[in-house]
Design a protein that fits this description.
Blueprint (H helix, E strand, L loop, with lengths): L1 H13 L1 H23 L9 H12 L10 H13 L3 H25 L5 H12 L2 H8 L4 H18 L1
Length: 160
């Protein structure tokens, strides 16, 4: 039993894969506890309904000059797919994109340093940031935009 605990400790503390799993696990636990505090999986802002309206405008082949088409089209697609659970589905999408961006931030930092402590602390500052996590639960494109910037940054630095 002690040997298993030592191996588990070494995996989570002394390996990149273990660090990523630990960071994502704690981030997911914080997100889920925050959802319990909110009593639901999402937060609606004043801007949320405008994305659904813009999605309907784009779906009709017209131009909405206030919005870019990507997130409104995702909203309208999710509305057709998930009907009454559309807000929960969009929130889950935001959370998944956020969790994937944690992996890519860790990998981006790994391109610049091999010190596991620096990689871990820098990724934790991003992943366990409460305002950033709350932004994931807000049905707006802000959280996926930041997450995709991190993923895009990884792809750019990987090509250099």
């Amino acid at each position: 039993m002690v040997k298993l605990l030592r191996q588990t400790y070494r995996f989570f503390i002394h390996s990149d894969r273990g660090n990523i799993i630990l960071i994502i696990g704690v981030a997911l636990a914080i997100l889920l506890s925050w959802c319990c505090f909110l009593d639901n999986l999402y937060k609606i802002s004043d801007d949320t309904l405008t994305y659904f309206y813009a999605g309907k405008v784009f779906a009709n082949g017209e131009i909405d000059y206030l919005r870019t088409p990507i997130y409104p089209l995702i909203c309208i697609t999710f509305e057709y797919l998930f009907d009454s659970a559309v807000l929960e589905a969009l929130s889950i999408l935001n959370i998944i994109v956020f969790l994937v961006s944690i992996i890519y931030l860790y990998r981006t930092i790994s391109l610049f340093t091999q010190r596991r402590t620096i990689k871990f602390i820098t990724t934790v500052l991003y992943a366990w940031n409460i305002p950033g996590m709350v932004m994931c639960l807000n049905i707006t494109p802000d959280s996926p935009s930041i997450s995709f910037v991190i993923i895009f940054g990884y792809l750019i630095t990987r090509m250099i």
